[in-house]
Amino acid sequence: MNTTTLLASLAPAWRDYLALCKPRVVSLIVFTALIGMLLATPELPPLATIVIATLGIALAASSAAAINQVAEHRIDAIMARTRHRPLPQGEVRTTHALVFALVLGVLSMYLLVAFVNALTAILTFVSLIGYAVVYTMFLKHATPQNIVIGGAAGAAPPVLGWTAITGQLDPHALLLFLIIFAWTPPHFWALAIYRRNDYAKAEIPMLPITHGVDFTRKHVLLYTVLLTAVTVMPYAAFMCGPIYLVGALLLDAGFLYYAIRMQFDHRDKLAFAAFKYSIVYLTLLFVVLFVDHYAPAVRDLVY
Fold first, then answer.
1. What is the pLDDT of residue 7?
2. Dihedral, CA atoms, 151, 202, 267, 189, nearest 10 degrees?
3. Do 151 and 97 belong together in one domain?
4. Phi and psi angles of residue 57, each rounded to the nearest 5 degrees, phi first
5. Residues of the chain with pLDDT under 70
6. pLDDT given at position 233
7. Residue 161: per-residue pLDDT
8. Domain stop point among 148, 168, 188
9. How many domains does the chain have?
10. Are 232 and 91 in the same domain?
């Protein structure tokens, strides 16, 4: 076999293993962790720490994603949204995927313990277990409040980023945790409304299945109102300035627009539009946090 043929045969395999890592989800996790690092100190943190901590957190998130797919490969084969993943398609064996996930997890812990700090490694490991084991294997199938309780693992990345730089927990980092924790239910329930037939086929007790779509729409609105209140807290706690406050309120207005409109417009495509906006919302909210934090330093450089 020549080199060209060998590389051509390996390319699909690497794409399959990359898909096990859920790169879109992990990219948002890594982004919020990175913003947590950048907010942890008044000046830019050491580049080496940023790079190693980002890699360690990314590997842990990828490991959790792969374990999630191993645990749910039979369910994924039933659902239209997930049936094209590598495991349901038979492109990767479950044993290979599990070994891959464990290698990523061990490498993550090594990098964080050896080159960052023990607290970040411990919190990252707890988050990995929280998502891959507690949420995936137990909560998801036990209660329609699964995403509320399990959302704690998904809300951890900015805290991990913060502790990677400072080596300690900080109340301001916990505010970032609260933002993502409050954001997760309306974000995910909007998708659950759109994909409720899939969840019904897989017999997963998501809120639209157990309590109905109207009930879920009301909870999307209630949690969006809660999210709006939580996003004001960094300004109230003197963590952020007016740039953040204005940006957050504008983004909150957009989320509230979708949540309120969903109470009257029951089309599934509106729920999916709300889900897509929620991703843009969280990304831009953390961008505004970054801009607000470094705006004074930029002004000092200019003037």
1. 40
2. -10
3. yes
4. -70, -40
5. 1-12, 297-303
6. 97
7. 98
8. 168
9. 2
10. no
| Residue 137 and residue 85 in one domain | yes
Q: Which of 114, 136, 168 is the last residue of a domain?
A: 168
Q: Which domain holds residue 139?
A: 1-168
Q: Model's pTM, two decimal places?
A: 0.93
Q: What's the CATH code of the domain at 133? A: 1.10.357.140
DSSP letter for each residue of the chain = --HHHHHHHHHHHHHHHHHHT-HHHHHHHHHHHHHHHHHSSSSPPPHHHHHHHHHHHHHHHHHHHHHHHHHTHHHHHHSTTTTTSTTTTTSS-HHHHHHHHHHHHHHHHHHHHHHT-HHHHHHHHHHHHIIIIIIIIIIHHH-TTHHHHHHHHHT-HHHHHHHHHHSS--HHHHHHHHHHHHHHHHHHHHHHHHTHHHHHHTT---HHHHT-HHHHHHHHHHHHHHHHHHHHHHHHTTSS-HHHHHHHHHHHHHHHHHHHHTTT---HHHHHHHHHHHHHHHHHHHHHHHHHHHHHHHHHHH-
Same domain, 51 and 197: no
pLDDT per residue as tens digits for the range 192-244:
999 999 999 988 999 999 999 999 999 999 999 999 999 999 999 999 999 99
pLDDT score at 237? 95
